[in-house]
Task: structure prediction
Amino acid sequence: MRLADRRILLIVSGSISAYKVLELTRLLRKSGAAVTGVLTAGGARFVTREALAGITGQRVHDDLWAAEAEIGHIRLARLPDLVVVAPASANMLARMAQGLADDLAGTILLATRAPVLVAPAMNTAMWEHPATRANMAALTGRGVRVVGPGVGAMAEPESGPGRLAEPAEIHAAMEAILAPEAGPLAGRHALVTSGPTHEPIDPVRYIANRSSGKQGHAIAAALARLGARVTLVAGPVTLPDPPGVTTLHVETAREMLAACEAALPADIAVMAAAVADWRVAREATQKLKKEPGAEAPSLTMALNPDILATISRHARRPSLVIGFAAETEQVVEHAIAKRARKGCDWILANDVSGDVMGGDANRIHLVTDSGVEDWPEMAKAEVAARLAARIAAALG
Result:
């Protein structure tokens, strides 16, 4: 049991998904961990002290001043090996980002020296709001780890990102922090790109594509699970940053190339991003106006930097450089030609004429110097796991 005798402080904030923490606590207790529960005022509306205490086997704390009289928030902050906030509501994340300390949970989070893991849970619109994205960027920049959120049906009659990660996923993320296994890629640095790029036309418009980043993010997570230190350079996506991965957020192809070069040296590079081939040569400083009777504006295009070719021929070239070829016809033929043209070691070809971009499944043709492997259609997470295993085998 990898979490045996580990001390976990579990902070439960206000979300309808809070009922899942009872199952999470059961898993932790089964793993031999000691769990201390802290309820915020919102969390106490969904989970009772009695229910959480019954599973943890310990008293649950929910009041700053009562805790001060009996044990003190500093002691609560110093006792655990890991602090977990699950669910972490939008309000909880905002308070953490601001460093507010007017309740027990806030004071513990400011005073603790233990690693902190958050499991966000909220409505999709709240998760995608710029304020929440900024709060998450601030927290991850301070070293806070994240698991989830998942994508699926909400309490409201709608679907999207924002679901609390399942208890088993949170449990696995805790194991990865407290009891990391030395995987086959331990000691290796992997650089991964993901998502689209946005190339501005004017202050409000841009050129983009339909890439969701699901495949690139899954590859980054799969490499991290095998022990690699992963740097993910992500274009504009609505996905959460993968746990255990250093994520750099960029907008344009030129920013992505600069971030990739700054991340070198690396042992592995997987260029999964769907980078825009062209950009507007001269971005307008003001919004282009549609005038009555006027013709549509003419845009002069310029080539974007070729990130895959640049990394493949770089002075600090990774040992293994892998590209992607998103094609709509003659998929394998175009991928073979692209591999030779770019100078990469492997290339993953996929037909994007259907719903691959933005979808959850992919059908891959792996092109190497040994030939072409046709992989069956599978979930993008499975593609990522299979690719990571192949990378580990190739690097010995």
Q: What stands out?
A: The mean pLDDT is 88.
